[in-house]
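Quick question: what would this complex look like in 3D?
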Amino acid sequence: MTTNVSALKPQPSAKEVFGKIVRNQLFIPLVALFLLITFNLVTDPGFFKVSLEPNSAGNLVLSGNLITMIDYASELVILAIGMTLVTSASGGQDISVGATIAIAGSTVLRIVKTQSPDISGAKFAGIIIVSFLLCVVVSALFGAFNGALVAFFKIQPMVATLILFTAGRSIAAWINNNDNISINDKRFSYFGNFIPGVAVPTPVFITVLCLIVIAIVLKVTNLRLYSQAVGINASSSRLNGINPKVIKLLTFIILGICVAVCGFIKVSRTSSITYSVIANNIEMDAILAVALGGNNLGGGKFNLTASVLGAYVIQFLTTTLYKFKEIDSSSISAYKAVVVIILIIISAPIVRRKVDDMKNRREAARAEAEALKAEAEALKAAAAEAESIEAASAEAGKETI
Amino acid sequence: MKKFVKLLVSSALVAAMAFGVCACNGGSTPTTAAPAPTDAPATEAPATEAPKTDELIKVGIINNDPNESGYRTANDRDMKATFTAENGYEASFFYSLKNEEQIAAAQKFIQDEVDYLLISAAGTSGWDGVLEQAQKAGIKVILFDRTIDADESLYEASIVSDMAKEGQQAVEWLASQGLSEYKIIHIQGVMGSSAQIGRSGALDDKVKAESNWSIVKQQTAEWSEETAQQIVQAVIDSGEKFNVIYAENDNMAKGAAAALDKANISHGVGKDVIIIGFDCNTWALEELLAGNWNYDGQCNPFQASYIDDIIKNGVKTKVVIMEEKGFDAKTITADDVKNYGI
């Protein structure tokens, strides 16, 4: 339809360019971000002030609302990467990520807690690497467990991941014998806070690294094409030589690795863990981020940039709500829900399609009316011509008579 | 290739399931390794009593899930350490956070003809029927940690923590510090939980009563350290001044302290910000010992010795309110950390 319309109008008007922007998947999260920024600037002009001040270790670090927001969004952004892939390939979501973050974090602490704080730097680095690798392996295994249920047993993703959603936190508690752990080694907190001498919070670096890695993976491999193909139509992609089971399994394993990174950052932030509430409800925020990015939660095509932006919007919203003293603590979730509902509805593919349809229909109606008018004019002209011919012939007849 | 993938998947499945099975066992076994510090005399007495009766006292213990919190873990360990064969008991345990499941378990214990039923109820209502059954069967019921809405005649005794008292002790301690102005960040637990209501209540009353006490920020972090960290960070970013952090458990206090560290705000004894936590985790008491925090209020999880005392020596009062301690960083000793840390 759009090609038709543009064929009718040779020059792209300002309206059309605007329409194109509105239809872009990045539009909704960007507008949401813009609205939040405006709202914050109006209520507090100093909201985006970023300052460079020394922290308790005496190092200069960046601080301010904006830095806090970007810092705390890290886990959500990393999760949104994996969740988008899983959504695309399996047409469902993993609701166990919060619980598996608890498992990942618990695994890290299990290794780190055995070490005394006065070991040498090299040895400490070794322990961190070992604990991180182990946590990646464990999380990937749990991801594979979810993925296998979905891919090989054809269980709905939400039902399959319900198992770990229920059991995950108990497993996490069991890994550490249910101890309430606190790590004394200051170096362990570097990964969730600041590395001495670096002004930017470490989670931001980790996030950027993850984004670069996934960008490269999507660039050099066929992962994007394959997972979209599997999500759109699994059986036809199988006929085309893609194994849908392997692709689904793979996306869950990738999500598992994302979970491992999140778990590591989370436990490093406070050097401790509360099994029952660590990363509480983060699965909902991660799914929201995917939905907010305008991705179809039923699988198929996806836009990772939009999901990442969605994640930042959600954290921005959370940070904004924490800032307001007037908001009663028990009603904070309700405020969040209202904003989220509005955003989700306007970014839902079906609503966007409806809006597009309406616009197209209007354009079509206008084009049709124009065509009718042109036809009527042509008819009128033809009638006039016929009349003049008739008149002429009558005149000629008169002459001959 | 396909076979290989299948093999890989199935082995992953097996591994994950094995993990799961271990988790189920793990929940109930580790207690023998960790002797819980009980602070009452009852534990050493039974050595002489046990052979005399020769028959073990059968107790059915219904508790909340030990994974719920550090408090519950300590409570469960304490129970398991007290109700042992050496102390003259044959104990069966049941854990659930659901009231109906707990009631069903109580019925099963009645059928098994236990001598005592010890209950920490998940919910307050729905217990009348099963307690009457127990009474008819001649089984004595002792409630611990949580109370229920049932007639007092249906149970022998109830041993509870007074959360409001914990809050009051902390607030009184804070008042005794004699600051000219109290600007408080109040980080709450899960809204509506008894610990939150008790600990918030005392502070709210004091802030209303005193003109130089004010709340800079009152927000629930739902017992989560990371949320607490974000809340305190939001206050720091907004530039508002504060000098007290009143966190309703240790983990949230830890999150708040992490935010202060990040922003170069000193905290602890003689520093800019006073930190108050609750629950007396061992690591939290160590923070007190190091002077990084100022006060930690106890929520006594060691009810086993009180129950043991009631079973062996009879009921003295119907409602036993446990002694709760509060530790000041200036006076805490290494022994306190060892004895009261959970």
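Answer marked as accepted. Confidence is low (pLDDT under 50) at residues 20-53 of chain B.
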